[in-house]
C-alpha cells in the first residue's frame, strides 16, 4: 500500500427527499486531485446518495491504498463502522429482524472497503471544511445534471 493516504470527502442528497438526487466525492493524494459526481433523475433518498458517494470514490481507486474517508453522514459512518457486521451476521436483518434498508448499497460499500485500509471520519456538514463543501457542490451538480439541467 502507498504510504501516503488518499483523503476522500463525500456528500449526497436529494431535493425533495425522496426525489431526484446527487452525490459528490473529492479524492486527494499528495498533489493529485480528482472530483467525481453523479445523480439519479428518479426518486431516490438522501441516504442512498450518501452511500453512493463513498462507493463510487472507493471503486475508482485502481490499487489498494490507505484511505481517510470523511462523510457528514452519521448514517454512513455508523453503518459501515458499527452496524454492518451485525447485519451481515443476521442475514442482512436489523436487530428488530427487519430487512436492512439499502442493503444493495451496504453490501457494495462493504466490498469496496475490503480492498483498502479505510479509516472513517465524521465531519459536520456546511461547517467550512473546504473539501466537504466541494463535495456538496459536486453532489448538487450531479443532481442537476441527472435532471437534465446544465451543471
Automatic annotation (TrEMBL):
Region (Disordered): 1-21
GO MF, one annotated term: nucleic acid binding
Annotated positions binding Mg(2+) 2: 11, 136
EC number: 3.1.26.4
Catalytic activity: Endonucleolytic cleavage to 5'-phosphomonoester
Residue span(s) of domain RNase H type-1: 2-144
Enzyme class at the top of the EC tree: hydrolase
Compartmental location: Cytoplasm
InterPro entries noted in UniProt: RNase_H (IPR050092), RNaseH-like_sf (IPR012337), RNaseH_domain (IPR002156), RNaseH_sf (IPR036397), RNaseHI (IPR022892)
Gene Ontology cellular-component annotations: cytoplasm
Keyword Cell inner membrane: no
Subunit structure as annotated in this protein's UniProt entry: Monomer.
Protein name, UniProt field: Ribonuclease H
Organism listed in the record: Aeromicrobium endophyticum
